[in-house]
Every structure is written in C-alpha cells, then in structure tokens.
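One such given next:
>
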Amino acid sequence: MTDAANDKPLRLFNSLNRQLEEFVPVHPGEARVYSCGPTVYNYQHIGNMRAYVFADTLGRVLQWKGYKLTHIINITDVGHLTSDADEGEDKMEKMAARENKSAWDIAKFYQEDFERDLARLNVQPKQHPRATEYVEAMIAWGERIADKHCYELDSGLYFDVSTVDDYGRLARAVTDDGEGRIDTVEGKRNAADFAIWRKTPAGETRQMEWNSPWGRGAPGWHLECSVMGEALLGFPFDIHTGGIDHREIHHPNEIAQNQAYCCTNGLDDARNSGARIWMHNNFLVERSGKMSKSAGEFLRLQLLVDKGYHPLAYRLMCLQAHYRSELEFSWEGLQAALTRLKRMVMAVERLKDEAAGNPSHPKLAPMREKFASAISDDLNTAVALVALEEALAVKKIDGGVKRAVIEDMDAVLGLRLFTLSRTDLRIRPADAQITEAEIEAELLRRKEARAAKDFATSDAIRNSLADKGVEVMDGDPLGWEWRL
C-alpha cells in the first residue's frame, strides 16, 4: 500500500441498489470476496475469463488499499443444467456421456485447464472450493429452510420465492407473471420458484447423486454459492461478483436462499442478501458468433496463444474498458493491445536494473493522483493505464523513483511489466512454417546484404520471409524486427 492508495475512498457500484457507494469492510482491516466460478464441463471461452480479470483487479485494488484479502472462486462440478433455469440436462453428465469419461474426470480435467488460464492471465491465486465437497452442507442447508420456504414435487425440492421480501430486486425483472426467462415446471407455485434439490428420475442412475431427505439426487445449481459463501466467508461478507448474466436468475435465487437461511427479509439493508455489495462485469461481445461453445473452435485463451498473442495482451484488452461496459473483441483490437503492452515493456526495460526509490517526487505526483483517483472510482482501469503511461514518459527523473511508481501501479493492473521481456511477447503461432532460429538467421543474412548495399538479395530475403508469414518491420519505432 502507498500513501496515494488511501488518499481517496474506494467507491464501488452496487448492483443491488444501482448506485456507487463507499467500501466499508464488514470486518475492519479485511476484505472478503466471493466470485462465481465456472462450470467445469468444457474449456472456458474468453468471455468467461473477462469476469476473472475483473474480479482479480478488484482483489488487487483491495490489497493496494491495505486490506487483508480472502477471495473465493467456486468450482461448479455438479448441479448446473444446460439452462440457467430448472430445465435441460446436467452439463457435467452430458459432457461425460459425450466423451465417454466419468463426470469426476471431466471436472478434474477442465478445472485444471481453467486454473492454467488464470495463471496465464496473471490472476492471483484464490481458493477454489468444489461444489461436490459441500453436498452434505447443502443438504443441511435445505433441511434448515425447507419448512418455511420450500415445497416438494415429484422432481425435487423447490424454493417458494414468495416467502422472502424483494425477490428479484437485483435483476429488476420481476413481473406479475414472474421471471420471464424461466420455463414453468409442472406443479410449481410461482414461475420463478427454483430447485434446491433435484431427484434422480425413477429408473435412472446419475454418476453424481447422493441420498437426501427428498430422495436420491443432486443439489440445485444455485445452492452451492450460498453454502460455500457462508461457510468460507461468513454472512454478511463484503463483495459478491459475477458476470452480468448472473444478475438475472442465479444471483437473485442465491440472495433468496441467503435471506431464508439467515431469517432476514427486506433488501433495503444489503446485508440481508448475504453480501454488502454485489458487482457484475458486462459482456465481451464478438460479432462473428464464435464466443459460444457450440460454435466449434470457440474463442478460448489457447486459441489466442495459437495465433501468436500473449495472454497478457488479452488482460490489457480487458483493462482498457470499464468492467461495467460492453467490450467488443476483435483481432485488430487484440493486436493493438499487444502493441501497447510491448511499448510499456520496452519503456520498463530501462528501469529493471534500478533499485526502487521513494515514489514521492513532484514530477510524478500528478500521475499518482490520477491513478489513485481512477482506481478508487469504481475501478476505472482505462484511465489508470493512461496515468501509468504518462509516468513512464516522464523525463529527467531518477530511475529508481520511476520504478517504484510503476511497480506500485502494476501491482494493481497485474501486467507483470517488470518480469516480461520483449521475447516473451513474441509468440510463434501454432501454424507458423518457420522457426525463430531460422527467422533470426535469415534476418542476419539480410542485414549483411543491406550493409553491402546488395538490395536485391535483401528484398529477396524479405519476400521469402513474407511468403512464410513473417512480416519484417523496418523502421518500426518499437524496435521489433519481425512478427509472425
């Protein structure tokens, strides 16, 4: 934490009341955050990963402000159907059948891939509890709320949303007919009622099923977050995050469960929801339709790497937009983010041998003020990035002083500016027809030809490289001699 970090109060947009409010921790000196994690039945597309870049940035800001952070990202390995409502097949069971593997193996494989992607995006380590580790606790939770808030049908135990005040307030989508996106299950009292426990249909056997007071089956998807949030963070905790899609069904249902469990009602007091602040990042939009997992080769982080883009270029792309704004993905935009990251890395290169000094220097004070104000204003990373670049551009100042300021800013942005090199950012695309060693050898031969004023040979080498997908960038101010 720096002095600049505490010059401004941290104000965050609370989706529950639709306004900015100052962050005041439930437990002095601590920040407890829960972020809805993935259903590990498939690879995560880059739209999913935007949520974790946002959540990680939030956690970094809280640490920068001096709070001891506890941050949970749950792993959904049971209970999530192919619809966010109570319909369709179980995602885990469906993928297990398709790949002829156990649901447990599916969960392990895709959780490990998700965690690799987090590391590549420089998301700080979090706790990743799995839903299957908390099934007994979910059953106990259901037993506690069943009498007053639930009813049983042949298909399972359902939560009656009319038993809590302000249901759907987070989504602001409740009508006289209930939540419009939820299809009616026969026998439900209200269209928006949702499953606490799903019974395994007669004559069927699931890979993941447990005994319960309501029959053998599996928990509803919404229950796990309530149970793990309370068990690991305690009610109320500080902040609950997720994608904006969770704001319409999943989080209102989670809040209703929390109200029932805590014997509390109205949401004028945000603590009754289980968390003091609810935060949601907006969608990543990709116009070609390849964001969806049903599109075949959908946009996942590995695809970006295969095309020659460093994962931190995508992190920077996310940081260039406010988390509550839609972000449009394009390859041109990703290339621009990569170029911007290269410029930062090159500017930092000159500071790597300097010992960090005292960041309090009058020349850098305006940038530190701008950075702190932006970050404290609902995580305005777009402006914070500009402040960092302005600090890098300051001339005639001790390198150690500048290093201290840039390191402090990068602790929030997570771009690894002092550990990345130019070589790290030059990734060979998976379909490249030439190795880096071959490129370097050809470029050396070309330099020798140019030095000898043999421009015919120089041009021939350049054209030969172009045929193999190598762009030679003569005169590029970044100093990058080539790219694939």
